């Protein structure tokens, strides 16, 4: 039987993402690997992770989004409405907290200065990334989803695989910066003496990371595959 990749496993049941997160398994940017490979690479006990996954089956699956069954244009709309809107709302909000915490606590907690630096880089990167998706890739995916063979649009970028590869690389970069922030913040655990602003910053960063994982997962593991399949199915005239 064909072994699913970790990205496919999450696409089938999003609760799997929670287990992967617990074990530090990156299912969104690096979702093309099998669980056995990831465990071997990270020195994790495969049986242990499989046990945690089988625990999930004891509870009925909650009603969840079946993004795999959605049409690509609907999924692109959903990602924009839910995740892009969220990112745009949170970038200035988290920036304000991160700056304040760095200025007030940077002396005693120098990692907050680093977090502020990485956050600024991540925010700038994401702002331009969203625009590329919204202005270039997603409109083309919507066209593909609604095109008949005879009116298939000619893409301005050769094949959809080119922007897809570029977006995947940018996801990888953003994921790396987010991981660095997680490490610098000791997994988002504020020190004993942290004030409220400090605590709120870490809570917001953790929530932002979870949303980013889901967002990138929907794109890398579901939307992009649909776009490539659509393009392949269209015979150009
Ligand atoms: Fe996106
Ligand atoms: Fe993206």
Structural write-up:
- With 237 residues, this protein is mainly α.
- The chain has two domains: 6-56, no CATH class; 68-233, no CATH class.
- Helices cover 70% and strands 0% of the residues.
- Helix 5 (72-105) packs antiparallel against helix 6 (111-146).
- The two termini are 38 Å apart.
- The relative contact order is 0.14.
- One fe (ii) ion (FE2) binds next to helix 6 and helix 7.
The total beta strand count reads 0
Helix count? 8
- Low-pLDDT segments, ≥5 res: none
Mean pLDDT: 91
Tell me the radius of gyration. Answer: 20 Å
The 3D shape can be described as globular
Helix content class: over 70%
Structural class: mainly alpha
Question: Which strand-content bin applies to the residues?
Answer: under 5%
Count of discrete domains: 2
Bound ligands: fe (ii) ion
| Oligomer classification | single chain
Spell out the helices and strands N to C: HHHHHHHH
Task: Compute the separation of the termini in Å.
Answer: 38 Å
- Largest sheet properties: none
């Amino acid at each position: 039987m064909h072994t699913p990749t970790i990205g496919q496993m999450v696409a089938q049941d999003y609760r799997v993402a929670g287990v992967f997160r617990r074990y530090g398994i990156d299912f969104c940017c690096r979702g093309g690997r099998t669980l056995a490979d990831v465990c071997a690479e990270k020195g994790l006990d495969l049986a242990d992770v499989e046990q945690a996954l089988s625990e999930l089956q004891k509870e009925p699956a909650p009603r969840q989004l079946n993004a795999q069954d959605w049409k690509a244009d609907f999924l692109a709309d959903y990602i924009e409405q839910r995740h892009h809107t969220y990112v745009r709302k949170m970038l200035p909000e988290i920036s304000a907290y991160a700056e304040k915490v760095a200025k007030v606590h940077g002396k005693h907690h120098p990692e907050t200065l680093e977090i502020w630096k990485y956050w600024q880089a991540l925010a700038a990167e994401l702002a331009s990334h969203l625009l590329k998706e919204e202005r270039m890739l997603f409109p083309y995916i919507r066209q593909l989803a609604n095109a008949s063979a005879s009116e298939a649009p000619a893409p301005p970028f050769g094949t959809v695989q080119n922007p897809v590869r570029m977006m995947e690389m940018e996801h990888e970069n953003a994921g790396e910066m987010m991981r660095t922030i997680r490490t610098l913040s000791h997994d988002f655990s504020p020190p004993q003496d942290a004030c409220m602003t400090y605590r709120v910053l870490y809570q917001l960063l953790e929530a932002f990371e979870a949303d980013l994982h889901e967002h990138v997962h929907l794109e890398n593991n579901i939307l992009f595959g649909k776009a490539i399949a659509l393009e392949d199915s269209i015979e150009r005239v």
